[in-house]
Amino acid sequence: MNFRLRDDESIPGRGTWWNPDNRFEDRSAAYEGEDAPEGPARVPTTYLEDASQTIIARNSSPDVGFDVSINPYRGCEHGCVYCYARPTHEYMGYSAGLDFESVIFYKPRAAELLERELSKRSWKPEVIAMSGVTDPYQPVEREMKLARGCLEVLAKFRNPVGIVTKNRLVCRDIDILAEMAADGCAGVMISLTTLDLALNRILEPRTSSPAQRLEAISRLSQAGIPVGVLVAPVIPAITDHEIPALLQAARDAGARHAGYVMLRLPHAVAPLFDAWLAEHFPDRKDKVLHRIQSMRGGALYSAEFGTRMRGTGIHADQVAHLFQVFCKRLGFQPGAWDLRTDHFRPAGGAQLELGF
Fold this sequence. Notes:
The chain is of the alpha/beta class. Helices cover 31% and strands 13% of the residues. The chain has helices at 98-102, 110-118, 141-144, 146-157, 174-181, 197-203, 210-222, 243-253, 269-280, 285-295, 314-330; strands spanning 46-49, 56-58, 68-70, 73-74, 103-106, 128-130, 161-165, 186-192, 227-234, 257-262. The strands form 2 sheets. A 7-stranded mixed sheet has the order 2-3-6-7-8-9-10. It has a 3-stranded mixed sheet with strand order 1-5-4. α7 runs parallel beside α8 and α8 (243-253) runs parallel beside α11 (314-330). The radius of gyration is 21 Å and the shape is globular. It starts with 45 loop residues before the first strand and ends in a 26-residue tail after the last helix. The relative contact order is 0.13.
């Protein structure tokens, strides 16, 4: 049952207390005032098996930094209220709200399916992104180890991989990543939104803390793994002032690359974020929303390629300039790392050698 708690309530450990209607469903239920059903004080996570027969997804968006990705999970228990991926849960009949973070689909055959794809003669080695939609290192990965299984396959073939995560659990796989990095086949971006632990707990309730993420950057860097920081999302009037401090902390920890993404609020994410602001920043809500609209042509979201990741207008330009100035000042390397495909091992074996 989709429920909505009264506006003065929240669920411990969850990013939202609300399940907005699925935009693909033609039926919905609405409650007001005292008629609103009470939700549970806590919501347990449900795990459902995903019977997908393929694991590699192709991306044709010109402003996304990868063409191919794998996602061992659908939905994300981290519960980041702003997550642009929330609406993907609607394709499976669930809500982008509480359902997204409490009903997690897992792909038990992820590694097997990946190996099957990389073994095909038609496969041309290219960088595979892990976390194109969902963070591969969400809490249940500790037990399921689906991301690690995929990394083992990628290491076997020496197919390059780029990872983006908010979870220090990535350090568990330093053994594999360091081995691949030695051949230029692995890089990691740690997503860092804020250094404020109190804000982190209400904004991204089940992610690793800011200090833990900086520790992950340090450990990855010390292991010889190319590591960078992704300041994402930049939230106007909430986290944008932290950009210099975030870059400084990441650089001190060992990050050598940096990028940022402006807050994106597609579909149901907009009302979810609006409700979050009303609960946690009622005095600042209008300012935040107006600032977002100033960057999105008067709307809360624009899907236009080329500008959706950065926004437009004076405020977007100010953020871009601030980011560029501090990246240059701190010595961050321009662009992302170049991962290599020439170490690819067909069928997971040794590289072919030419004989004359």
